[in-house]
Amino acid sequence: MTRHLMLPRAICVAIEITIATVLVSGCSTFSKDGGFDGVSSVASERLGKDAVYVKTDAQRDAVNKRTQELLSNPLSMDDAVQIALLNNRGLQASYGELGISEADLVQAGRLPNPGFTFSRTHWSDGFGIGRTFSMGILGILTLPAATHLESRRFEQTKLETANAMLAIAADARKAYVNAVAAQQAAEYAAQVSESAQAGAELALRMREAGNFSKLDYAREQAFYAESVAQLAKTRQQSVAAREKLTRTMGLWGQATQYKLPERLPDLPKDRPQLSDLESFAMQNRLDIQAARWRTQSVAASLGLSKATRFINALELAYVDNFESDKGHERGYEISVEIPLFDWGGAKLARAEAIYMQSANRLAQTAIDARSELRESYSAYITSYDVAKHYRDEVVPLRKTISDEMLLRYNGMLVSVFELLADSRDQAAAVNGYIDALKDYWLAATDLEQALGGRLAPLAASQVPIVPDAPASSPHATQSPMASAHGASTNSEGK
Q: 385-441 pLDDT, tens per residue?
């Protein structure tokens, strides 16, 4: 026989207060933006770009139109970042985490569904009907805490998604720098190979005429053979770098036929002086903010675990039974799990271990961030100084030597092979400058990423992506390095 108990007054009051709170605040509903407005504002404030979560055909058409407009001109670094934010499917997939997290939040804020049980029994001289209407009370009592916990997790997801967006933007910048530098190196390698071919052909004719030693002839042929191999290698590197940029921007089909500028942007006139970078990064980096939210969420979850460690199930039921010989029988039932074997110690220990794990991960994230910042800032300073040294010292000196050698060649004071040997030295200098310039822009991107986004001082110091071309050298047709020199010394005299 079932015993029917009246609810204790304290439980009734707690249930009434909880239900009243839920009814006053209203059931949780989905927001209009799905949490994406925060991500979009980060893209606008930290990158100066637009972030779009493509869900409809109209939005997809608008993105395609915007992409085609950006691709109609030679691609700039900023355009590459914007196209990646619009088209990168991996980034679009990460936006789905917002919907998942918000759905969890809405679900946590809704009352649990009630249950209804119906039974019919009979015996020799009668029958009985049982009806029970039940609802989980523990879920109602913990509803505000669970909602607050999921709200924290939703905020954490927003930060993690925005940080993923910043990472894609940094990947696009790096891929762009590598692609333009690889293209520039391949074009320069083609010029070197043409020059080496001319030297090899001249050496062959002189060798056949008996005016050239076997050693000198072998040197020219070896240089030409090496230049052919280097050209093939640089062209393959250019293709690989371009495809990496294409993947990062999420392009396919005809959109992959975009045009890159001839060379990388030049160095800023002056290197920005930055201070208090570590404190700025600690406040600005989204991964650190997300780790803080995660730790706070785990702490809140630990409190909930402590509150429910002894009771895993608490159910209230209204009972209405009927028997043919007794009539109606009405009352309440309370179902409580008795902590006879499991006192919740393992559950609490697990929650505490998760909290300590989260706290240590937060501390490690901060330590890593500080170290990454110091490393990236050192690389930024060094790469700027090295590139500036090549631009202001090495390349101009090599150009002076080239001009002097050309004058002596025109005056028949040096041979053509001495001029070609000088060109080989120039090749190393110009290639060194291209690599140094590439390293600078990669280091600048790493620094901005370590700081949590684009810095105004860095952005303000950048020069146009495609500077005006320098005046052609009067010896361009005579010196195989002249065109490469002109691109490398454009900033000379600024």
A: 999 999 888 888 888 888 887 787 777 777 776 777 677 777 778 888 999 999 999
Burial of 272 (C-beta count, 10 Å sphere; 0-12/13-18/19+): middle
With b for 16 or more beta-carbon neighbours within 10 A and e for fewer, the 400-439 pattern comes to eebbebbeebeeeebeebebbbbbbebbebbbbbbbbbbb
Mean pLDDT on 52-71? 93
For every residue of 243-299, DSSP letters joined together read: HHHHHHHT--GGGGG----SSPPPPPSS------HHHHHHHH-HHHHHHHHHHHHHH
Second CATH level (architecture) for the domain 34-110+142-309+344-488: Up-down Bundle (1.20)
3-state DSSP call for residue 120?
A: strand
Find the length of the chain.
494
Residue among 104, 164, 194, 109 at smallest CA distance from 286:
164
- Asked if residue 183 lies in contact with residue 260, where contact means CB atoms within 8 angstroms, the answer is yes
Binned at pLDDT 50, 70 and 90, residue 205 comes out as: confident
Task: Please tell me the pTM assigned to this model.
Answer: 0.76
What per-residue string of b and e applies to 364-393 under the rule 16 or more CB within 10 Å gives b? ebbeebbebbeebbebbeebbebbbebbee
Q: How far apart are CA 368 and CA 108, in angstroms?
A: 34
Tokens of 383: 């790469």
Per-residue DSSP letters for 350-367?
A: HHHHHHHHHHHHHHHHHH
406 to each of 193, 370, 398, 488, 490, how far by Cα in Å? Answer: 20, 52, 12, 19, 20
CB burial of residue 135 (10 Å; 0-12, 13-18, 19+): middle
Phi-psi region of 3 (alpha: psi -120 to 50; beta: other; left: phi over 0): beta
Let me know: does 181 contact 264? Beta carbons within 8 Å.
Answer: yes
